[in-house]
Amino acid sequence: MAGARGLRRRGPRWAFGLAAVPLLLWLLWPAVPLPKVPPAADTPFGWGADRTLAELERSFLAARGASHAENASGFSALLAEGRSALAGLRSDPNAALAESERVTFGLGALAAADGELLRPFQAYVERVRSEVRGVLRGADDETFRRAYRVLQGGRMALEEALVQRGAESLPGLQLLGAPALETPYAEVRGVRVHSGDIALSRGAAPTSALIARGSDYPGSFSHAALVHVDGATGEVTVIESLIERGVVQTPAEEYLSDPKRRILLLRLRPEALPDPQAPHRAAERLLRRARAERIPYDFAMDWQDDSALFCSEVPYQAYRSEGVDLWSFKSPMSSPGLGAWLSSLGARHLTTLVPAALEFDHQLVPVAEWRRTEALLSTRYDDATLDALLERADAGLRLEVPRYLLPLARLAKAYSAAAGAAGLPPLVPDGMSPEEALRVVVLNRRFFSPVRAALEARADAEATARGYRLPYWALTRLARECVQRAHLDAT
Length: 491
Known about the structure:
Blueprint: H1 2-28, H2 50-64, H3 68-87, H4 93-113, H5 118-133, H6 141-165, E1 173-175, E2 185-188, E3 191-194, E4 198-202, H7 206-213, E5 223-229, E6 236-242, E7 246-251, H8 252-257, E8 262-268, H9 278-292, H10 313-320, E9 331-332, H11 336-344, E10 351-352, E11 364-371, H12 376-394, H13 406-421, H14 434-466, H15 472-486
Antiparallel strand pairs: 1-11, 2-3, 4-5, 4-8, 5-6, 6-7, 8-11, 9-10
């Protein structure tokens, strides 16, 4: 009995001691201030085509009410103009690119209204993308901007048509006719994959939208990985760097079964290689390193230092060892709001290797694309939400840390250090501070989730009333309204 009374007397003291730990962490662990963002040296890309986009919507509506014969006739006429424009790419690339952009969006409006035109439109888009990549080598800023409008615009126009026509309008796998290499290869889900191929993908997390959209030239991919094929066994391994774990080796089937909204497989052109086995050696060397040592994730996004690697650095550093400089275009992030957000999440290099930019590297050709057509609508909601939030960030919205949550975040960080040492998954990734982890929570739960939910509800209601899905330009306008209604503040 006396022992029990003693325990009862000591119990509150122990409880008080435990409760004091978060308070001490809060008081004694100084808050990390938001880093200062250097002034922007570039100007982010802008479409500046609201009037043109409104006219395209009217063309789409007119085509919905026309017969297939009428739409096919207009499609054929535009197709002839597009082929004529492509013929002038070498002599006057800027004029040819401007004309190609006009034709691509015009054809897209017809294909969105008439499902029988989808396949010829897809074929045209891929032909344009193949030929336009040829003008990117050594392109000046103006030519690059125009090429981006055609390349990214063609993807947007095709996916706009897919959203309007429905999930089963085109097959989920598109083979793109890339040349075979002399490196080891294996068949993966109907695609011949070579050692050294590069996989771009898009995830479903809010941070995936930030990575895909967060540069001067917004794109469609948020992750990059490198493929290794064992020449003896044919085993296919995907080498990638994950925020939670750093560099890992993932079996191909496991990589493909993980939920992804799209995957684009890229391959080095044979003429871009120092020798035929360079891609395999690049993948082999990095795989050996990943098996021999732990390579942490690089939150600073320092692509010139290979001691830690973020996702794009995996293929970049592997090929760099073979004398191949990928990412011929290093993406600047000149928007002040974007720069402030990325810096507050740990990034220190705001001109870097953005995964989506690799799609525009002239040294690479597309092999195949897996596209989850039914997920395109969700991706559009994510992108429009993020685009609208970044506009608000430019106006001063910051990812400030809620100070009352700091003790819990610091406890989670302390636990994560112990968990990592024991081989357990951490709550806060190694290399990320408690404040940075909390800012991710603010971005996901305070900013992104409520705006996206409101956008989806309003856009679905609009689609029901109109009888068709909102085009992306109208979706972004609606997302701005949702951001305003959310009354977001820094905390």
